[in-house]
Amino acid sequence: MATGHTDPHRRERILAAALDLIAEEGVAGVSHRKIAARAQVPLGSMTYHFTGIEDLLLQAFTGYADHVVALFEHHLSGATTPDQAREAVADLIHTLSEGTRRDLILTQELYTLAARHEPYRDLCARWMRRSRTLLEHHFDAATARQLDALVEGLTLHRALDDTPPDRALTHEAVTRITAPRDGVPRARRTPP
């Protein structure tokens, strides 16, 4: 095991270990000692890198939210037409819902914390704003808000359903939300 001076990735290992433990045991099951053991770092590293367990958890969940936003960006960045953007949203929903149980659990643990604690609510609000901003490159603001909720909801439903709906239903839901209403397009013609 490397010392602090020769271990530039120690902080990242601690954060990854925290997320792994949260996925396995829930937030209530984590402690400095368990995280340090999982990350294979001295217990003192915990207080060197973080002011306490709450700071560590908030930073770990912030990194997780960044990961999900990067998935949004990856899927949406190549779309140049409304149809491509719709397809990208459907792809994103399937990527998220068919991902690991770890990601599903981490998302739900974060939502539970956000329901009870302001810093996590703020984190979720920033996450939603970032996701909607990426969607707004392709859709108007109201549609982006609706799509963001659809992504969250369908991802959860598909991940927990014993027989999840197929891609056709996902595509239909995305199309219904993004279809023009009263002759007004809900999708931008080209990304800004």
UniProtKB/TrEMBL annotation:
Keywords: DNA-binding, Transcription, Transcription regulation. Residues 31-50 bind DNA. InterPro entries: Homeodomain-like_sf, HTH_TetR, Tet_transcr_reg_TetR-rel_C_sf, TetR_C_31. Residues 8-68 form the HTH tetR-type domain. This is TetR/AcrR family transcriptional regulator. It comes from Streptomyces atrovirens.
